[in-house]
Amino acid sequence: MLDILSKKHIIAKEGFNRWLIAPAALGIHLCIGSVYAWSLFNPALIKRLGVVTSAADDWTLKSVVWIFTVAIVFLGLSAAVGGKWLEKVGPRMVGTVSAICWGGGFIVGGIGILTGKLWLLYLGYGVIGGCGLGLGYVSPVGTLIRWFPDRRGMATGIAIMGFGGGAMIAKFMIEPFIKLYYKAPEYLGTVDAVELVTKGGRRLVEIAGEFQEVVVVGTKDLAGMYAPGPEGVYLVGTGTVGVAQAFFTLGIIYFVIMMCAAFGYRVPPEGWKPKGWEPPTEDKQKSMITRHHVHIDEALKTRQFYQLWVILCFNVTAGIGVLGVAKTMMSEIFGSTLPDIVDAAFASTYVLMISLFNMIGRIVWASSSDYLGRRNTYWIFFTLGIVLYCSIPYTAQQVSVNPSVVWLVYFYAATMLIFTMYGGGFATIPAYLADIFGTKYVGGIHGRLLTAWASAGVFGPLAITSLREISVNKAINDLVEKIDPAAFYEKFGASIDQLEQLISAKTVTINKLMEIAPMGTVDPTPGLYNTTMYLMAVVLFVALIMNATMRPVDSKHHMKE
Amino acid sequence: MSISFNNSTDVFIFIIFCSVYVCSILWIYGDAATRDMGIRGAILPLVFVIAAALALTKGLLMALIVWPIGYVAWFILRPKSSHVITE
Question: Out of 3.30.365.10, 1.10.10.350, 1.20.1250.20, 3.40.50.720, which CATH number does the structure's domain A1-182+240-268 have?
Fold first, then answer.
């Protein structure tokens, strides 16, 4: 039965329309791309028991945010391991296993949510789902490049654009499903009308002689409720937040779509090429596009593989660097200097635009690379990127001195351009690999290269968090030096000697220090992101060197005919 | 995890170190494949990954020490002959 999934059964017949592969590839990538919408589950996951607000035994945000990172790590690992398997069994088999893992991961994760077992959620969505992500991501790449040897960039750009767009579509599915299955817990009345008891930090109410846990919803909690309800006391365990059921539904939907897409895959017959197209000659003009093939294992012994690894990894790291701070910069810096323009609605549109430009960049840059050349495309990414990254701190500084809309427009345009290049970097890399290593094992080699993404996904956020902490601590220490110790003691009830403890308890913050700082002290907030931006520019410079020194693979690595 | 950064240079070194480490493991993985090491070729890089993860929990310096030891160990343990895969 498994034979229908094998490579030999999906060889296209004469006259097959190669464009039919694109929707199949797009379908899989749109489904797995929903991983970027993981944060939409977080508010519901931390209210699994309390439903309207977090109960004592509910998971914390800190315990669930790492599920996304686990999924990305397993994406890289499974792509690296599954890449070679893909070359052996073909894209339909890999696409099918991907559908089972991704859909099944949601089901296992859903069971974890229902039973309150966090490890099961990690195993389901993070590990099993992560494997589905990796296998799904690489499944169409090699096939598309073989079908479109004349437009490699555009072909892979279409599929990988789907990964960028998956989160946007998921946004319109996740919240409605959660709301659909949401059931409000039993309302006991207002705080004044109910006799509350606190034991071991829990709020309890005596009902029929038994103490039962309750949650108290205040004014600030109302905005976070999935269905409008009154302020007051709700009985824990009597409602459902709907996230487990949403997981089950999404798992089934993704499984069905991905299976249909996997069965849409066809591979071209051996030696097939588009009508009227001839492989480029290896002259000096197009010396970066090889006619030879490098074996998947042999590729790991070439310096070009590691140059491309660094190119992808550092482009993603730099992208994560801006993704991690752009939204905060917009609200913290521009929100305070241009409050009439940058309000909550503006900030949420900005976040939507980030996804949109990330997606657009994938198809536009990848398609452009067919004409510009892959090395030139990355040359643009890195040179333009360095200029833009270095200019952002200047923009932030200028807007705090002179709150002009010009700086806002510049910041908006610069970050959007950076996001197109972030997406473009992902989408253009498979075509770059095909140019350097040939098309025979490109799917598998691409899988192994995705370890770069997994690495960037781990140390990128870690680096950004650390840089921010370093900058904040430095800014606080600088401010404290300017502040009168007596004023400090009066404000915080402790002396400057205890600054470290006061910072870790969040008692001392930049905003609070600015309240007692001498007149004329410059607010250091706009400069908090400078080191992140400059470091990302340095990281891009390393990638620039790797790209600039890219040369064709030595003939000793070529497969012998 | 006891990794802490004092400045952006530390962060940069960390990024470079992680990159070099992952690339080294990939290189060993490929090298093992061209030396017909079979399952041992897949397990050894995994051992290095685990060693690195454990070393990282003890701090970046420990990881910096473990990495060259593992890398040198590979050059001692690997079979001497290799070949270009022709398939």
Answer: 1.20.1250.20
Rounded to a whole number of angstroms, the distance from the CA of A384 to the nearest CA of chain B is 21
- B49 touching chain A per CB within 8 A: no
Q: Which domain does B38 fall in, by range? A: 8-77
* Torsion on CA atoms A492, A493, A496, A501, rounded to nearest 10: -80
Closest residue by Cα to residue A286 from A372, A225, A177, A409? A372
CA distance B6 to B12: 11
Instruction: Give the global pTM.
Output: 0.86
* Cross-strand partners of A187: A234
Residue B84 within any structural domain of the chain = no
pLDDT tens string for chain A (561 positions)? 678 888 888 999 988 999 999 999 999 999 999 998 888 898 899 999 999 988 888 998 878 888 988 998 899 889 988 888 998 899 999 999 999 999 999 999 999 999 999 999 999 999 999 999 999 999 998 899 999 999 999 999 998 999 888 888 888 899 899 999 999 999 999 988 988 888 877 889 999 889 999 998 887 778 778 888 899 999 998 999 999 999 999 999 999 999 999 999 999 998 888 988 887 776 655 568 888 899 998 999 999 999 999 999 999 999 888 877 887 788 878 887 888 888 878 887 888 888 899 999 999 999 999 999 999 999 999 999 999 999 999 998 888 888 889 999 999 999 999 999 999 999 999 999 999 999 889 989 999 999 999 889 877 777 777 888 888 889 999 999 999 999 998 888 888 888 888 887 777 888 888 889 998 888 888 888 889 899 999 999 999 999 999 999 998 888 876
Quick count: other Cβ atoms within 10 Å of Cβ B79?
A: 13
Question: Is the Cβ–Cβ distance between A195 and A27 less than 8 Å?
Answer: no
Mutate to test the interface with B, among A69, A77, A298, A473 (most CBs of B within 10 A): A298
CB contact under 8 A, A299 and B30: yes
Q: Is residue B83 part of a domain?
A: no
Comparing alpha-carbon positions, the chain B residue that sits nearest to A460 is B15
ipTM summary value:
0.88
